[in-house]
Amino acid sequence: MIKNKISKRIFTIHEIIDFSLILGALMSVCGTYWDIQYHIDVGRESFWINPHLLIYSGMLIILLGASLALWCARKLKSKQANQRLFNALIIIFLSVIIQLSGGPIDELWHRLFGLDVTIWSFPHLLLIFAGFSIKLSVIYFQRLYMHIAKLDKIKKFTSDEFKLELMFAIALVGLGILTAEYEYLRTIPFSQFVSIDLNNPWVYNLILSLEFVFMFTLAKLIIKTKWAATRIAIFYFILKAVMSYVLSTQISSPILPPLVIIPAILYDLIFEKTIKSVILT
Length: 281
Fold this sequence. Notes:
mainly alpha; 9 helices
């Protein structure tokens, strides 16, 4: 029996999105890190290299999942909550379309301007932020589903919250692609006049810190159970450590991820203390 008597249709849509979006997002971010390594070690032979196939296979899985979920959602009643659910699916679908369009744009960019020397080119940034938009959309969808199913009233760690926090970790990995070239000890030419040396750890740590503060704060605002930031940091570390290990078999490999678990614990403690102080006053 479906929890809290939510409709079978909404439950089906939710399960489709969970499976396809989490799997597709994982494939995309892993493929991107593999792609960066491939370009460092081999170069760019053609569009149809294995890392690209992994990335776009992940995108296609997300697209199919979002399309099927939209088809299932077309008969939802026009209640406010269900309409918001449908709107969340539309945002996911559009974000996937934008990210898929980044492939042809990237190919055209290479034909017009040659090979990229940085991940901070226009088509790459389009792909990164479209991918991040997908993950934020899924986070919103998952949180909205939990609200409709009244699962957000449960003050314990559930499978739905696990998937929500896992998507937060995947989003952090995806957002970290902005500084991925630092992890391969590369220098990013910001323009023809300025070059940003990401071998300088201060630059890398500053950007990464801003990413973590943003995502941890967002997580603490929408997740009601304690230690959410810590769990997200653990999931993030595991994902990055596994990727680093797998890619270490090649000539170049990304550095091990920063140990953000301890800062996340402090963040949880400080955030909880701050919230309690606000409530008491």
